[in-house]
Amino acid sequence: MVQKYQSPVRVYRYPFELVMAAYEKRFPTCPMIPVFLGSDITSEFHSEDGAVEIIERRCRLNVDAPYLLKKIVNVDYVVFLQKNHLDRRQRTLRIDACNESFSSRLTIKEFCHYYVHPENALWTCFEQSAFLEIKSFFGFEASVEKLAMKQYSANLAKGKEIIEHYVNELISQGITNIPIWSESSSLSTTTTTTTTNQNQELITLSTNDDPSLLAARRRLSSQDASNIFTSSSPPKAAALAATTAAHFSALSDEVETFQIDESSQEKQSVGNIDDEYIRRYVGQLDPFEESCLVQLRKWIAETHKGKLPNDSHLLRFLRARRFDIEKAKENVCHSLTWRKKNCIDRLLMDYEVPEMIQRFFPGAWGGNDRDGRPIYILRIGDIDVRGIMKAVHGEDVWIRHILYLVEEGLNKCEENTKLFGKPISSVCVILDFENFSVKHLYRPVFRVISQISDTVEANYPETLGRMFLTRCPRVIPVLWTIINTFVEERTREKFAILKTDELVEYIDEINIPDFLGGQMSFQAPSGGIVPRSLYLHEDEPDKFDAESSLFGDNAYTVVSIKEGGAHE
Known about the structure:
- The chain is of the alpha+beta class.
- The protein has helices at about 15-25, 65-75, 140-170, 195-205, 210-220, 225-230, 240-255, 265-270, 275-280, 285-305, 310-320, 325-340, 345-350, 355-360, 385-390, 395-420, 445-460, 475-485, 490, and strands at about 1-5, 10, 35-45, 50-60, 75-85, 90-100, 105-115, 125-135, 365-370, 375-380, 425-430, 465-470, 495-500.
- Strand 6 (about 90-100) and strand 7 (about 105-115) form a beta hairpin.
- The two termini are about 40 Å apart.
- The model is unreliable at about 185-270 (pLDDT under 50).
């Protein structure tokens, strides 16, 4: 099986020349990388003008493999070939590496790229990708595959830390001014042009500078140096500066689950995302999870046109499928088709809450829990289940309304992400069971709940963060004790049956509704009995047709076509 890795863009807040000097200090060996035993230069090329440098090395790596496996393959370390192509004129470094050991049994390739940040000349970007294919390995193919990816991921996490360590070491040694390469031979002497002096002044990182002055210097080199941290577009080419600005605007103003700006879709389709953006807007991920997100994002952008899921939404699909990229791809494709068929992207703008739901459905959004999740509160015991089901047109009314609430919740998650300065991707639900009785156990309700559950799970995975059940009748805890034995632990941890005075452990008192002992005034319909005069039918409501559109007519027709058949 082929394993692939694609890193997000990692940004060093140092000039390219200083980062290159720090990179060279990793050779011939690096104490901060225990598995790196050493390296030997096998060939070296320097252009006459000093702009281009090509160095090939044989690197020895220790493998933390089981003792038995080492004995079978009869090696203490493995050898990799590395080729570094440094272009000082373009200010780029390309690194290609492949395995020499066991090359007939497995293939390992790695590609790295250092380059100047397109929006800030004082920063350096780094991208990395890798490829692993095991053909045969003494019957240990699966073990070697897991071992290789584990060690590779572990070393990835240290990469940025090592570069920054050596940069700080250079600065402590007084090496703070490394000039940019220039065609002029006088650049290396004291004679420089006015423009070169200005560039060198910007690149100088004096340890005596005041931090605020240093920050001001850095800001001078870019129109908006902060864009890299809030942009979902990658710093991969000069043309992407405009794309970054567009995405920064989208992150500031866009509140829908899916991105609206179609004018920049072509530009962003080849893009990557930086690690700071992931931490700020998506969440803390390990290298493997980052790679999965980057690969899924790239695949979706290359294969689909129009509006695309944002990165938080893609991450939900990955988490729901335990970061199995192939399964996540399949689920995302089905979800995109479903959204187009049912015009979900217009839901927040076009949907009008039915009058009966406005009058008799006692649910509303409240404040936020202590993790920043928006809270939806439903007084489920005050619902006249039979009455309200008979007062609306069919089960699809409820499915539409719940989907509207989900989209509204994701909208609030986006707002809270900006408000609290950390990624918020799920909601909290409080169900109040006061006055709940047997009359609420109405068969059509279970059909609707089942349909809603299937739809939300398929198209909004990992949207529920926590669900609190409070003031429950005695039968609810008994039923939950039986049910939770069949529920996955990850899902089971999201549910909790609490007393009203226990809610304060998860939610500040100011965000707990007054009827549950908090200080918040709950603004929602009171529920109650639906008058029979408002019934639209006495029988059970019409069942939902899965093949129909949830939101009226659309341009899509569902047909079945056999191989070799035709359709007009």
